[in-house]
Specification:
6-stranded mixed beta sheet
């Protein structure tokens, strides 16, 4: 049995990212980049007006000139073909290129235009004490991003809000890590499908649907329901061999020390190398992890306990870490945060306990407040509908008082 932190480290050392694939920009949100993204253009690609107004020479304003001949109108998308000289200006729209000779924009609210002897003339009334320096209301070429600079880096998850910037720098297709294909095998002769009413000594399969839902929510490219497999060595061998054709295989039940806990032995026969078995955590102690490499393909295997909350905790804290690594992610998936207890809580046990909890909204508190949920053990699924986090209580028997600082893992 190994410490929890060591189990996480072993997963990080064992799991390798899946190979990259090229996908179009419109599908990249939420994916992890497999290569750096550089700009193929300066942003902005020209000196650009930030306001509607008039482009002119700032030194004219400094010299007290307030009357200007309007020599052209420049809209966004136009290419100026004029050069501004002393006493001249160009009417300009937001986003339009700045014409040669000018170096500032006077906003339209400060101006008045009229015809004078058949020529358009602009006069400006600048509010007292308001400077109009060179560069006013202009964003210069490359001020935001310079051509050939790295804008996104390998391992970065692309947020939907980043797609506009990716489009601006010409990233119409990107290299991202593939998403894993995962098979799920709930084991146990006592299990029946959730559509059936359980007979004597039977229970409905809850782990299978729960794991499949979490895998889908975590963005796996394929989640294969291999169906319930009873405690039969032949059936388990066949199901496991099929499951090993995926990038990851999750099994539930059959990983402890009972007579019918057949999974570890069959995995070993199938060529799966054990990385660890049993972790100092509660719930979830019997969790099993290994890897098989064959013909250049790797499959990572988790044997999760049969009790539903144990399965949930094992998935959230260990399986998700492996999924993150497969997808090329960086940083810990289950990052611990500091919080304070909303009530007294009595913890006991010889292993660290990850207790289901939820956040308590308090706009007046600068720290997170967490409430342990009522929970009767690893077979009790009732608190799962409210669980937002797992509160980490260290090994040992003690009373954790209200307002005590604890660590929690958001799920």
């Amino acid at each position: 049995m190994i410490p929890f932190d060591e189990a996480v480290q072993l997963i990080e050392q064992t799991v390798r990212p899946l190979p990259p694939e090229a996908i179009p920009l419109e599908r990249v949100a939420g994916r992890v980049l497999a290569s750096d993204v550089t700009a193929d253009i300066d942003s902005p690609p020209y000196d650009k007006s930030m306001m509607d107004g008039f482009a002119l020479r700032s030194e004219d304003i400094a010299d007290g000139v307030r009357r200007f001949d309007v020599i052209a109108t420049i809209a966004a998308g136009d290419v100026p073909d004029c050069s501004v000289e002393t006493g001249q200006c160009c009417r300009i729209m937001t986003g339009a290129p700045i014409p040669d000779g000018s170096d500032c924009v006077v906003v339209i609210e400060w101006t008045e235009t009229r015809e004078d002897e058949g020529r358009p003339v602009m006069t400006c009334e600048i509010p007292e004490g308001t400077p109009v320096p060179s560069g006013r209301h202009i964003i210069r070429l490359g001020e935001n991003i310079q051509k050939d600079s790295r804008v996104f880096q390998t391992g970065q998850t692309v947020q939907p809000t980043a797609t506009g910037l990716l489009a601006e720098i010409g990233a119409s297709e990107l290299q991202v890590f593939k998403r894993p294909r995962v098979a799920v095998i709930p084991t146990g002769s006592e299990l029946v499908d959730c559509s059936r009413f359980p007979g004597p000594a039977q229970i409905r399969n809850s782990n299978g649907p729960m794991l499949q839902a979490m895998l889908q929510a975590d963005g796996c490219s394929e989640v294969h329901d291999a169906g319930i497999v009873g405690d039969d060595e032949g059936a388990l061998r066949a199901a496991i061999e099929n499951g090993l054709q995926h990038d990851m295989l999750l099994l539930t039940c059959g990983v402890s020390m009972g007579q019918f806990d057949l999974v570890p032995g069959i995995l070993c026969e199938a060529g799966v190398e054990q990385v660890f078995h049993k972790v100092k955590m509660k719930p979830g102690k019997p969790v099993w992890f290994g890897v098989r490499e064959r013909n250049g393909q790797r499959c990572y295997v988790f044997g999760l306990p049969g009790n539903p909350v144990s399965s949930l905790v094992g998935y959230q804290l260990l399986v998700r870490e492996a999924l993150r690594m497969l997808g090329g992610g960086t940083g810990h998936q289950g990052k611990k945060v500091q919080a304070v207890l909303s009530t007294d809580h009595h913890a006991r046990g010889d292993r660290p306990t990850f207790w289901p909890g939820k956040l308590v909204p308090d706009p007046d508190s600068p720290t997170r407040i967490v409430q342990p949920l009522s929970w009767r053990g690893s077979s009790d699924m009732s608190p799962l509908t409210e669980t937002e986090l797992l509160i980490c209580f260290p090994a040992g028997t003690r009373l954790h008082q209200k307002d005590a600082t604890v660590e929690a893992i958001l799920i």
